[in-house]
Amino acid sequence: MTEIDANTMTELEAAAFRRLVAHLRERPEVQNIDMMNLAGFCRNCLSNWIKDAAEERGLAMSKDDSREIVYGMSYEEWKSRHQPEATLEQQKAFDLRGSH
């Protein structure tokens, strides 16, 4: 592999992240609880990681602001449009995982 400088690597990582977020916005039928059960992270985790990164750099960011970055709208709006109540099976699987 060609050696990649730190700035270029950051640009590549940012591009991959933007593509992941776009993909998740295009797939609202993929529920957060299913993502958590299968992969151990969800859209909310991504938004929390953004908030954490901002705070590590001394930038104030609210949970609502970081979620809007990931969801492309307010979390409440996204939930009302796309998030049905979790099924009993989804909730059981989530409970077996424990906290994330």
From TrEMBL:
Entry's transmembrane regions: none
The leader peptide range reads: none
* Cross-referenced InterPro entries: SMc04008-like_domain, SMc04008-like_sf
Please list the coiled coil stretches.
none
Which residue ranges does the record assign to the SMc04008-like domain? 30-95
Instruction: Identify the Pfam families for this entry.
Output: DUF1244 (PF06844)
> Region (Disordered) spans which residues?
81-100
Name of the protein: DUF1244 domain-containing protein
What's the source species for this entry? Answer: Terrihabitans rhizophilus
